[in-house]
Amino acid sequence: MVAQSDDHPGHVMPMPWSVKCAMEDFQGNIFPGDVLLLNDAYRGGTHLNDVTLLYPIFNDGQLFIFPAVRAHWADVGGMTPGSYSGLATSIYQEGVRIPPIKLYERGKVNEGVMRLLLSNMRLPDERYGDLNASLGACRVAEQRIEKILGKYGRTLVLDCICENLDRSERRIRARIQDLPDGEYCYEDYLEYYDGEVLDPVLMRLRLKVSGDQLTADFDGSSPQVPGVVNSSLAVAGAGVFVAVKSTLDPQGPVNSGAFRAITLNAPEASIVDVRADAPAGAHGEVRKRAVSVMLGALAQVIPEAVSGDLSGASFPNSIGGYSKSRDRSYVYIEVPAGGNGGFLEADGSSAFVNVDFGSIRSIHNVESLESDMPLQVRSCVLREDSGGEGQRRGGLGMRRELRLCEGEALYSVLGDRAVIPPFGMHGGGPAKQLSVSWERGQTVKLFGTPGKVTGHRIQKGDVVIMESAGGGGYGDPLNRDPEDVRNDMLSGYITRHRAEAGYGVLFTGEGEVDDDRTSALRLDMLGRRLRLTVKADETYPYIGNRGKRRAVRLSEGTITGLGVRVGDLIELMGNHPAPLRCWIEFGEEVEQDICPMDEFGRRVLGVEQAESVWVRSLPGPSAAGGMAV
Fold first, then answer.
1. For the chain, what are the domain ranges?
2. pTM over 0.85
3. Considering only the top CATH level, what class is 530-625?
4. Please, which pLDDT band fits residue 624 given cuts at 50, 70 and 90?
């Protein structure tokens, strides 16, 4: 890849992967005037909505370069309007899968292919417009490339391309060389539902640094499942690259030269290297989780350069139906922005694009939305108390409410971090999870599978409530300047209860910080933190059905002392910046205040036998509330 625009870093590996797959399929059978089309999520695609147009340019009779445009099409068929389904069990439910095909052959459009594709997509006129927009962009690229070739010649242009790629490789290798050699481990989860039973799947990473080379090894990650938590290795690799580039070389150009220093390993038919016919629509969630595990691993070697976790979900919401007043069908898609993690210098940004989404994350302009569709924006506000507590607070998510103004429609959402919250760093607290609900009359109802909904029927007057997750906190919240806590409270970012219970800040009757009482409360809160002693134990730590999640076996007395129940989610904090998430299990043979832990877990936390870890309980469902065993 010679260059890519900065608007969506998530495509940085999938785009060249798609070109490679197309070249393999056509084996040189590509001619001037051909235009290739594809969206195959198994072969360099992201999700099926992202349709790629490849436009080969020839010079002196030889194939020279591919301008490539990947555009999100608002619908590509499938079981729901918008082609988003949080509960799909097969890729066939997610839309039309397009292998590399020739849409134009030697300059002539393949009308049969056009009719076939558009006949299987909602709003075909819009899709035809999407196609022509991409085609127009490619033709502009063709004109500009031919102008450059005419001015400088093929040889000089190729020399410049090669030098640019080599320069990017040298830049990233020099920065990797500065890291100490070693292997750095982390793990995190995606929320898979088997029916309505939560059965999280594991993303496990060993990040190996050797000289000027990085290897991201996902061995041990969960096998793929019939749910929307899988994606391709190109997508997981994009998450790896985004984390590396943003922490080590944020100013350098984006091209394939920078990829050369990164090796990817993953088990086939896993959540990070999906195969047919499993769903693959969770590209945003898988990529963001790859960023998360990379941050957790990199925090062990460059602790000052990482932030608290991202909000962690692309969170696309779709509403589709027919508007009688407009005499046409419509598909609404929106991705409410979440919070970013706090970092060394500042609080995280609120309701703002995550690093892997570039500049595409936005909410619809109210006036245009309400003019085009039978929807009314009832409110759009920052979500109080959603940012993770920390010396640097995590950014806030947002709450957006939409009312359906006529007829009936189908609502779908594909999200994650609805149960397992974004994590903090350096003792920072977790953010509030995302949430979706719907209101009819005076009743607000949650969905049985949080964050994942397929084709829920709503009617005139119903309100859909979308609440994005916040970002993780950075640093111990008891070290946050009390005046910053007070300002957050006055600004509506946190409640008074959060100021007191989370940050240990108390106020006078006039609303000023009570310094003496605050200092006393913070000392008391610090003293009441619960610690367990680590015991090396190589018993296989994971449980689940199709999924895989870490269990920690504790004594009955320890569980009671922690104020938690079997099946509850906790996090452990050790010597490394990022926490380790576990679900509590009863261990009959485990002694009081002992925490058995395998080698991988100890490496995540940076602890050894007999060292202590700090325990924090997290909101989440218990086994009685629908967890796979």
1. 9-168, 482-527, 530-625
2. yes
3. mainly beta
4. very low
